[in-house]
Amino acid sequence: MVRTANLNAWKKPIHKALASIARDRVLERILAQDFTVWKDEDHGITKRLGWLDPVPKALEALPAIEKFANDVRKDGITRVLLIGMGGSSLAPEVFGRVFRARPGYPRLDILDTTAPDAVSRTARGIDIGETLFIVSSKSGTTAETSSLFNYFYRLACDALGEERAGRHFVAITDPGSPLEGPARRHGFRRVFLGDPDVGGRFSALSVFGLVPAAIAGVDVRKALARSEATIQACRSKDPGNNPAALLGTVLGVLAGQGVDKATIFTSPRIRSLGAWLEQLIAESTGKAGKGILPVPEDTPAPPLTYGPDRLFVHVRFGADAALDKGVSALSKRGFPVITIGFPDALSLPGQFYLWEMATAVAGHTIRLNPFDQPDVEATKKKTRKALEVFGRGGSERPSAASLEAFYPGDLARFLKKARKGAYIALQAFLAPSPATVKALREFRDSLRDATGLPVTLGFGPRYLHSTGQLHKGDAGRGLFIQFIGRGKADLPIPEVDSVRPAPSFGTLIAAQAQADFEALKEAGRRIIRFELGANVRPVLRKLMSAL
Predict the structure, then answer these.
(1) Alpha-carbon span 283 to 281, nearest angstrom
(2) Same domain for 385 and 494?
(3) Distance between CA 154 and CA 254 in Å, rounded?
């Protein structure tokens, strides 16, 4: 399941770490929910370990989930739109893309952006009467989710009337959250309550992942059975027979030796897994001046492109000759490589659990708490402040001047600030259209090739719930390039129950961009910003030409 290559340079510290895990009964203590595996004091750790034995809980919940999924299909629902951020949206996205659309079942789409162009485009493409909206938020207070709910609930009321609108909504949230009450009050078709002892990024095998998967036609029961052997292997108390212990130890030990850029290659069918892994690893390990930077890449570049701080992780789905060849070239060059077998789609729950347990082990190895996110709140607070500055009562957004537009030549000067072990993070507060995604990926790869540095790409505000923790919590070696844009038209956010998180989506995303810019600067990070037009490719090419 987990194979390694070229780890001889770290053989002694890896064996020492595994021996320590065995001697100190670390795996046994993890399963017993012993917080001292990570910290001397609890710090809320024991309230975040409900994910450790997921199958019995899932099987208990499945009859109600399966019945609901069948009822939805019989009622003529052809599309499911999940509104959520971070852990509430990333696992459902993986389920939807790995299993693909099943004939006779609704199509599952995810909306996790506040870019007005993207929200408008999504709204134009749906038939309200045939759509089920899943509002997914553990806390029930996520500003992006609340804003999107307000918008689509008002659309449903206008199209169907308030009496019928609620039947097209489902809530997934924790008991007693601010979402549960309104969901029941507005007659939501169903409210699924999560386990408050399971953190968002560890919630893939809870109702947050299983409900959307089942509605979209995934045979969850069969997938859990197919993954049972993997999950049990990862629960072994013997590190010598536990693939998650090996994976987590290698990640942690190499990070401690400066090989802290875990570059992830996945086969095209499972590419969405990279974004889920990115959140799990970055938000769990990026704190207290430490961190493993996950770097999802589509295909391997020539070996000379990469520096000595790279560890390569190849998650292999079936046969993929092109990817195998590229990874083999990296292995022959002597880079450390981890290969993980992913035989079929039904193995997905096992992959989720493998990485969750490995992340817990890596946290122990690095000596940090993998279950908190101490630096996430900084941007949220600054967003609220920015909304007040921009004008809560109207749709004002910051001017181009206040957003500190730069000239292309500034990029070359900015990149000269890179220190040893640096990385570049592209932060795009733009509508993630196919053309924009393609152009930014091309820019990412060109920038990597030109600088030799790891380059990540995240769309805002999505990345704020993923890599945003690491950006502010690691050793501060990142170079941050923020892109902002001007949409074709702004989109007002309606008020529901006297609540409106922001006057418009344009105002909200601008406030989020400004807030994270300020939070990064306040944390001593190096950041530069560029404003892009509707067609981003010419501007990106101009930036590259200045290097």
Answers:
(1) 6
(2) yes
(3) 51
Residue ranges, the chain, pLDDT below 50: 392-395, 398-404
DSSP per position, 469-534: HHHHHS-S-EEEEEEEE--SS--BPPPBTTB-SSSBHHHHHHHHHHHHHHHHHHTT-EEEEEEE-S
141 and 69 share one domain: yes
To which residue do tokens 């029941």 refer? 184
User: Are 429 and 389 part of one and the same domain?
Assistant: yes
The per-residue pLDDT for 400 is 39
Same domain flag for 170 and 249: no
Based on the number of CB atoms within 10 Å of its own CB, is 56 exposed (0-12), middle (13-18) or buried (19 or more)?
A: exposed
In a domain? residue 140: yes
- The residue behind tokens 């990926």 is 441
How is 304-315 classified by DSSP, letter by letter?
Answer: GGS-TTEEEEEE
**Angle of the 243-256 helix axis to the 348-366 helix axis, nearest 10:** 40
- Identify the domain containing residue 61 by its residue range: 54-218
3-state secondary structure of 29: helix
User: Residue 397's pLDDT is what?
Assistant: 54
pTM of the complete model: 0.95
- Show the tokens assigned to 252: 């942690």
Place of tokens 């509605």: 215
pLDDT of residue 408: 61
**Six token digits for residue 409:** 């030549």
Neighbour count for residue 184 (Cβ, 10 Å): 12
From the number of C-beta atoms within 10 Å of its C-beta (0-12, 13-18, 19+), residue 259 rates as: buried
Asked whether residue 405 falls in the same domain as residue 540, the answer is yes
Q: Say if residues 363 and 338 touch (Cβ distance below 8 Å).
A: no
Nearest to 430 by CA among 504, 487, 492, 491: 487
Cα–Cα distance for residue pair 155/153, rounded to 1 Å: 5
Per residue, the 3-state secondary structure of 457-469, as one string, reads EEECCHHHHCCHH
pLDDT at 394: 46
**Statement to judge: residues 361 and 386 lie in one domain:** no
Residue 383 maps to a domain: yes
Total domains present in the chain: 3
